[in-house]
Amino acid sequence: MKFSKKFLAGALAMMMGVSLLAGCGGQKEAPKAQAEISGTVTASGSTALLPFLKPAQEEFQKKNPKVTVNIAGGGSFTGMNQVAAGSVNIGNSDVFLTPELKDKGLVDHQVAVAPFVFITNPDVTVDNLTQQQYIDIFTGKITNWKEVGGKDQKISIIHRAKSSGSRATIAEIVLKGAAFTDNAVIQDSNGAVRAAIASTPGAIGYVDAPYADNTVKTLAYNGVKFSPENVIDGKYPVFAYEHMYTKGEPTGAVKAFIDFVMSKEFQEAYAEKSGFIPITKMKK
Predict the structure, then answer these.
(1) What is the mean pLDDT of the chain?
(2) How confident is the model at residue 282 (pLDDT cuts 50, 70, 90)?
(3) 193 or 164, which is more confident?
(4) DSSP secondary structure letters along 99-152
(5) Is 210 helix (H, G, I), strand (E, B) or coil?
(6) Bigger pLDDT: 278 or 18?
(7) Any idea what DSSP says for residue 246?
(8) What confidence score (pLDDT) does residue 284 get?
(9) What pLDDT was estimated at residue 13?
(10) How far apart (Å, rounded) are the C-alpha atoms in residues 168 and 2?
(11) Which of 82, 113, 167, 252 has a CA that sits 20 to 30 A from residue 49's CA?
């Protein structure tokens, strides 16, 4: 059988066209590029939450190099007031909104659980106090360690200012409404409290658990030592939910940062490593 040159050229062109179409059909459509996030995120408030947010800040900026995250302390109430006033994007806090802030349009993002511990100078010989003994010490009724089984030594109270969420947590959970004595030294951060107690004989105070290192002594509460398991099981009650408040629903870089903090990836890698408890592990 003979074919004309014109017929052969047409057939060849058709075969090439089919082959080209087949090749295109086998390729998956390239995923649409995600819009790159940019901007600046500002946050202030709880110093207790800083050990959790600092690694979040570093990891998030590595993944999003066009975003700058600035995080400052100042205390929970400072953070809540500043986000309500629009001074920062996020107000970090150890406590729930106060009544005067509940109508400011703030949205609560609970990101972790922060345990608190009582610490003393290492020279204190007492290892455990009951809740009533903590109340009596922090209200000024007990002023010497010998009254709670220790040596004859003056008790020096070192703790936080009224703007502190840590102080509010201890007042609510431990003191149950009793007022702190004014006979105390006030420090402006967890780190400063720890440093002052470490260098003051007979001193006692409280800090967010990640701040308790070997320069101070950690006391038990009603005979129960702090551990993440004891918090999860409900045996150790001195803890707070950590909040990141925004004014309205967050968008852009602010939303992306909060989503990253709450992500399974970050929670599993850093929550317990930073001394916190992942929010997903708490028994409601």
Answers:
(1) 88
(2) confident
(3) 193
(4) GGGTTS-EEEEEEEEEEEEEEE-TT----EE-HHHHHHHHTTS--BGGGGTS-S
(5) helix
(6) 278
(7) E
(8) 56
(9) 47
(10) 98
(11) 252
Q: Which of 77, 99, 79 is nearest to 90 (CA)?
A: 79
3-state DSSP assignment of residue 273:
coil
How far, in Å, CA of 220 to CA of 110, rounded? Answer: 27
Strand-pairing partners, residue 244, are: 92, 109
What's the length of the chain? 284
Phi then psi for residue 97, to 5 deg, are: -60, 140
Q: Are strands 39-45 and 90-93 parallel, antiparallel or unpaired?
A: parallel
Report which DSSP code applies to 228. H
Strand locations in the chain (E) = 39-45, 67-74, 90-93, 106-120, 128-129, 156-160, 185-187, 203-208, 217-218, 220-221, 239-247
Give the position of tokens 């109270």: 157
Nearest-5° Cα angle at 75, 257 to 98: 90
pLDDT in tens, 63-99: 999 999 999 998 899 999 999 999 999 999 988 999 9
Q: Token pair for residue 197?
A: 């107690």
Strands 156-160, 203-208: pairing is parallel
pLDDT in tens, 30-47: 444 456 899 999 999 998
* 122-172 pLDDT, tens digit each: 999 999 999 999 999 999 999 999 999 999 999 999 999 988 888 999 999
pLDDT in the model for residue 34: 53
Number of H helices, E strands in the chain: 9, 11
Residue 58 vs residue 23, higher pLDDT: 58
Question: What is the C-alpha to C-alpha distance for residues 174 and 169, in angstroms, rounded to an integer?
Answer: 8
- Per the CB < 8 A criterion, the answer to whether 184 and 92 are in contact is no
Q: What is the residue whose two structure tokens read 């993944």?
A: 63
